[in-house]
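ugh ok fine here u go
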Amino acid sequence: MNHLQITLAAGLTAILALSGCSRTPEPEKSNPVTLKTDQVPPASSLELHSPVLRSTIFALVSSAENSTTDYEKEYSYIEDIGDGRGYTCGLIGFTSGTGDLLDVVKLYIEKQPDDNLLQPYLKALEAVNGTDSHEGLGEEFEKAWKKACQDPAMKEAQNEVISELYYDPAISFCEEDGLPALGLYIYYDTLVVHGPGDDPDSFGGIRQAALKNARTPAQGGDLADWLMAFLKARTAVMKQEVAHSDLSRIEVQEQFIREKNWTLSRPLSWEMYGDSFSLE
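structure:
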């Protein structure tokens, strides 16, 4: 290469350097997009009110409450499970000690005022509310409950109280927090077990405890992080009661989070208190 060629080559190199170019440009680096859990869209109001979703969630909760997914057969269930709440009855375990069983009976009497089998026990249910007492109830009440539950009006009463106190509030909180169907199951189950309210042991208290450690998706938080924070707060409350020392309910919900089954799509398989269940 002569002197002129060397000079031209050097000049070209300088021009390329000043322009930010290179003789052999590096290939562009790939930047794959990964879907984060906080990008999972919240369920629409139509999806949250879906009868199929309601049936799925009722079956999941029934596996914990009644050891079966065939929840339609559990309207007449009645037993004292020794948890300090008196009688546990019906589709989701209404209790004589917390007032929701009283709500069901009052509504049933409104729907069926003539010759109502549970009317004679109304005053006794009012008296034992807030306690675990069976005074004025006992075996005769248990028989009357089972017979009354053959009446479609009693089934309607149970379903309406469930919607008013538990299921509809769970939907409202899911919409507020930007959650998919799995969130509805977790919220509803929490409301069923711990009840509505803002004290530390109720749904509102559990949610407030979770908000101290995570943001909801509606606040810009990650979905999985929020649900796990909520379940951690609920676990602390569960451990305070001997009757809830088995954390199967929590473990099933954590399983669905790990599986990223945000929509609760079937088939579903899970274990609850040592028993295996599935929904096809």
